[in-house]
Amino acid sequence: MPHALDDLRIVDFSRVLAGPLATMVLADLGATVTKIERPGTGDDTRAWGPPYDEYGTSTYYQAANRNKDSVVLDLGTEDGAARARELAAAADVVVENFRPGVMDRLGLGYGALSAESPGLVYCSITGFGTGAGAALPGYDLLIQALGGLMSITGDPAGEPQKAGVALVDVISGLFASVGILAAVRHRERTGEGQRVEVNLLSCLLAALANQGSAYTLAGSVAGRMGNAHPSVAPYELLPTGGGDLVLAVGNDRQFGALAEIIGRPELAADPRFATNAARIAHRDELRLLLVAALSAETAAVWVDRLTAARVPAGRVNDIAGAFALAESLGLDPVVDVPRPDGTAARLTRNPIGLSATPATYRSAPPGLDERPLQG
After folding, report:
1. Which residues are catalytic?
2. CA distances from 342 to 55, 59, 363, 364 (A)
3. How many whole angstroms separate alpha carbon 248 and alpha carbon 237?
4. pLDDT digits (tens, 9 = 90+) for 28-41
5. Strand ranges, E, within 20-127
6. In this predicted model, what pLDDT tens digit does every residue of 242-284 receive, in sequence order?
7. Burial, 374: exposed, middle or buried (Cβ in 10 Å; 0-12, 13-18, 19+)?
8. Euclidean distance between CA atoms 189 and 168, whole angstroms
9. Cα–Cα distance list, 201 to 73, 111, 163, 172, 298 (Å)
């Protein structure tokens, strides 16, 4: 089966999540990825648990490291650094997320490697860039706090909340993979490599999307609204006669259908609720009326009725429920990725669908210094 990135060779010096996720996405699409790990312990996430799988391997580590070979090198030694330079010289792409300056001291910085390989694409992922924030530690929780995400997440009467996953690392890894592919495309046209720089804080600010533009364009600083939306109503979690219901009403037609289904058709013509802007201005009154009407049935009943009328509605799944939903919709969310011993690791499918060069799952995340792809 052809792979979109068959001829792309990547040496990955990164660890934890943002960098490994970026290289795994590219490996799924066919790139050959060699993961460089420290002696003894390897990637930090090998020790991050529980949970562990039945072999005692961290499930966190396995989330971002399939389709790779593992090579153990002590970069602090002359021999280790020399071997790393050899691998980098044969690569198309180098990815690293050390503190700014560390790779330069090891002789593995962009300047040194690109002098030997002018076509090299060199991706650096940092917490706060290479300027005044170079020395600051780039941990996801810290970036969520400093970057404003926690200030808009959670109950307005409670404390700021982080997202339930390391969302900044995930977003940064995806931005990094896009940057790498753009640089590779440029090299195909010109033969010229370049440095790709991604920092977690900038990635989060970019990912604030409408909340960021509300500030940059209108000076509006958002706060925590729980499950409500600053610009759309009703777009929130509501109690019913049995369980909670998620409503994501994005236009006036949907609101009219909602009003009809809950037995309050007059709400759609009420000047307080006839338009989205009016609903935003009177969101508290609207919520009280909706909660009263929704108490007549369970959430499950409302979901069936609303979905049939093309009103976006649902219930809150746990992780198992989310995978079960995807499975029921034919999305095949889990793939079996082969291990060298003939067993398989069950991992989440790459969500990118390509009709001619689909993602492939050639090997499970490697053990320390294991090369399942090279045999």
Report:
1. 169
2. 13, 19, 11, 11
3. 9
4. 999 999 999 999 99
5. 32-37, 68-72, 93-96, 121-126
6. 999 999 999 999 999 999 999 999 999 999 999 999 999 999 9
7. exposed
8. 32
9. 30, 24, 15, 9, 42
